[in-house]
Amino acid sequence: MCSLISKNKPMRKVMLVDDEYMILRGLKRLVDWESLGLEIVNTEQNPRLAIKYLQTNSIDILISDMNMPEMAGPEFVTRAKALRPEMELIVISGYSDFDYVHAGLKQNAVNYLRKPIDTDELLETLHGTLARIDARQQVTQNASLAVQTQVRTLLTSDDAALQQQVCQSLGLQFGETQPIRLIGVLNPLPPKDLVTYLRALTTVKGFYTEAKDFIIIFQGTAAELDVFIAEAPHQIGAERRPFLIGAPCQTMALLKQRYQQLRQEIARQYFFETAAGLRVMLPENQEQATLVLPSYSDVKDMIDNLDFADFSAWLTTQFDDMKQANVSDGYARQFALVVLLVLSDHLTTVNDKSATIAAINRARDVSDLKATLSQIAKLAKQHGRPKFSRNVTAMRQLAQQRFSEQLSLAMVAAELHLNAVYLGQQFKQEVGRSFSQYLNDYRVNVAVDLLRHSDQDIGQIATMIGYQNSSYFFKLFKNQTGMSPGEYRKAGTSGR
C-alpha cells in the first residue's frame, strides 16, 4: 500500500500495553500503521515494564488495556501521564465498569475502545488522535516562533519603547538579585532535545536560533545557572558542545552589548574549531590582556632560519596560544598577514602573495589559515635563500636604508654608475619583482611595524615611509595586506 504520509513528516511513536499476548498481536495487524504515519516502537504485557520504558523514552500515543493483573488500569494511566503529560492516551477494556472508563477519561484519553476492537472505530480514533497532536504542535510552534521573534527584536532593535514592551512580555526585570545573561549553545544535536529542555525552565525567558546556534535569555541566580548547565541534555551539554555563558547585565543598553560580544565569541569559537567546553565570558572591562601582535621584524627573526618542519611546529604553537588567549579571528588573520609578508621575501612572483592574501581573508577557520601559510612556507623553502649579485645587493640595501626618500630606479642607477634599463632587468630577474615593487613591499613592511607600535597619525606614517600622497599609500597598503591601514591598526590593538 502506498503511504499517504509526507516524506518530511516524522513518524509518530506508539506503544501498546495489554497483558494478553494475542490482543497485542492482533492490534499490530488490525490496521496499516505505517500508512497512518505511526510506528509501534514498543509492546508490553506488564504495565510496570511499560512505566519503566516511559521513564527514559518518549512516545506520542499510548494504547492500553484498563484491566491488567500487575497494576490496576487507573493507577497505570495516572502514572503514565505523569511521566509523559503530552502523550495521547487511548484506553481499551472488555468491561463496562464506569470507574475504569472514567479513570481513562480523567487522564484525557482520546477514546474508550471496547473489546473486541472494531477496525473502523480504531481508525477513527487514531485519525482524531493525530489531528489533536498536529493541532497542539502547531499551537506550540506558533507560540515558540512568536517568542523567538520577540527575543530577536529585543536584542537587535533600536526602538526603546518596543524593547520595553518585549521585556514586559517575556517577564524580564533588570536588577542585581537575579541577573540576566545571554547564553549561546553552538550547533546542538539534536536541537529538539535542547528545545524541550529550554521550554521546561522558568529561568529561560526566551530563545531563538541564529543559523545552527541557540541564543538564550536566562534570568536566575548563580545556583540556578549551575543547575541549568549541569542538567542540560547529556548529548548537548558542555562536555559535548561549546556552551558560552555571557556576563551579567543590569540594563537594556548593556544587554545589546552582551549580544554583540556573544556573537563575536561564537564566530571565534567556530574559527578556532572549539569542539566542546564551557566558556564564562567576563565583562569587557574585566577581560584579560590580549596577546601583543608581533611586528614584521619580530616574525622575521623568528622564522627566517627555520626549516619547514620547525616552521609548521612554530605556527601550530602560535595559533594554540591565540586560542588560549581568546583572541579574535581578526587578530589571527592579521598575524597570518605578517607571516605572509615575511615569507613573501622568498617568493619570486607577486601573484603568489596576492592570491594568499585573498585566501587568508576568506579562511573559514584556523586550519585553513595554517594550510595556506604552510603552502607558502613550503614554496618559499623550495626557492631557498636567494643569492644576489653585487649590483642587486646594493640596490636592496639602498631601498632598505633610504625608503623614506623619493627613490627611483633612475636615481639608484645613477648612484651606482650603471645603465638603468640593464639594472632594472637584472633586479627583476634575480628578485622576481621590479625595483619599484620591491620598494613598495618594503615600505609596507615598515608601515606594518609603525601602525602596530606607534601612535602616529596614518598620514604621518605615509610621509615617513616615502609617500607624499596618502591616498596612494592607503590603496597600496590595502592591496598588500587586504585591509586599510586603519583597519589593520584597529584589529591589532583590539585583540578580540
TrEMBL record:
- Looking at the record, the residues that make up the Response regulatory domain are 13-130
The residue ranges of the HTH araC/xylS-type domain are: 393-491
List residues modified as 4-aspartylphosphate.
65
Does this UniProt record's set of keywords contain Transcription? yes
What superkingdom heads the lineage?
Bacteria
SMART domains from the UniProt entry: HTH_ARAC (SM00342), REC (SM00448)
Q: Which SUPFAM superfamilies match?
A: CheY-like, Homeodomain-like
Supply the alphabetized keyword list: DNA-binding, Phosphoprotein, Transcription, Transcription regulation
Concerning CDD domains, the annotation shows:
REC_YesN-like
Q: Which Pfam families match?
A: HTH_18, Response_reg
**Listed name of the protein:** Helix-turn-helix domain-containing protein
Give the species this sequence originates from: Lactiplantibacillus nangangensis
